[in-house]
Amino acid sequence: MSHTPFELGPELVEAIVDRIGAFATEHHCPSIAWGLSCDGVVTASGATVVHDDGFHPTSGSVYRIASMTKSFTAAAVLSLRDEGVLSLDDRIDRHAPELAAVRAPVDDAAPIRIRHLLTMTAGFVTDNPWGDRHLDIDDEGMDALVRDGIVFSGATGSAFDYSNLGYGLLGRVVKRATGRRVQDLIAERFLEPLHLTRTTWLQPDHDDRARPYRWRDGAWVPEGLDPLGDGEIAPMGGLWSTVDDVLRWVAFLSDAFPSRDDPAPSAPSAPSAPSAPSAPSAPLSRASRREMQEMHRYTGTLQLPGRTAVNGYGYGLRVRSCARLGRVVGHSGGLPGYGSHMRWAVERGLAMTALSNVTYAPMADLTQDVFELILEHDAFPVPLPLDAPLVHESARRLVALLADWDDDVADELFADNVAPDEPYERRRAEARAWLAACGGSFVIDQVIATTRAAGRILLRRPEGEPFEIQFKLSPAGPPRIQKYAEIDDT
Q1: Which residues, other chains included, contact 100 with Cβ-Cβ below 8 Å and sequence gap of 6+?
Q2: C-alpha–C-alpha distance, residues 418 and 480, integer Å
Q3: Is the peptide bond before 381 cis (omega within 30 degrees of 0)?
Q4: pTM given for the model
């Protein structure tokens, strides 16, 4: 996917750096490493240090990315689904029989399925910050947790409740279905093929990593305990990574848009045995990557400047529908000593990630602030026009008919509902009135495809804004127009 040439410009970069510096000071972030990319190309990156402990980060320095890990776990589950190892509609006890006892404490509760764990709708209580202190739980600890009973906030499937435990149970399901830890599958299927060379499940043993801090009583203090290791709940938040690696991961996810026909590696074949899935020939199909970024569960609304955005959860990713930017996808991460966020505007191609090393640093606020700053400077990349040749051809034929009406041509162009909905005689008269409004001739200024089967036609007028007609095609082939109408926004 390629947008118009994108440059932030030195003045805007300076404004972004200033905003990040002010944010770091306000929120007591010892350091922030950050980066912006467009269509997978890094356009700006840097680091701010407020508390100088000798660590001077770059975009390649390692922080813990916490719950941003969930997108990797979700991708691994979808890769197994694509191979036929499991179905998202499988009950979790189909693969892990020991989880049969995990169900809401009401008689009519639905069984928990893999899809519920992916979308945070299993009914478990929201478990921040409990989950952050249990990443390293072992197999026996997870068994004991299940045996002693899991607390539910509601019936399965009834509501969204953010659950770290749910992603830990996804790891258990994958282990039972394949005989392998999901952490190992993620390393094999994503970290290695995508060259995420500094993304690991274990704390790095080198010095180019941010030490964890907590702001307490007006001062930075080292986070008291060593970061937890790689255990049974780590699929919810155990990864360490860098700005460079996260932006590479975001590029992989966002490159799934738009859907298209150009060559891509074929989907992996089914494994010879469910217990030993073969390595896929591609990390994940574009269709499955798009599926991760669909809004599978509504979570609420958010007031943005001048607009209300609708929020939801996909698979390991948060999804926002924003009138100004279209679909915006991302996820935060927070653990004792760390805070992080990644965000990208799907139709615009622009992405940002920011990593810090203080407990629960609100990096989502920072990436939102920077996006707002870029909007203020009118510097966001322009969305790509949709490749929809049927829409453009239908628009041309419709305008030609409206300029010189012919019933036989109308019969060829329109679906069979059009004439009964409004007789041709009335449509002919309407077309004459539209022609007069456009000064006696139709000149197309622009055709905008809103989908592959619907669009807007902007016709030039002697004065004022263009005359707009919207239309859509019918579902039955061959493609024909089922509806068209003037749109008056004045």
Answers
A1: 93
A2: 10
A3: no
A4: 0.90
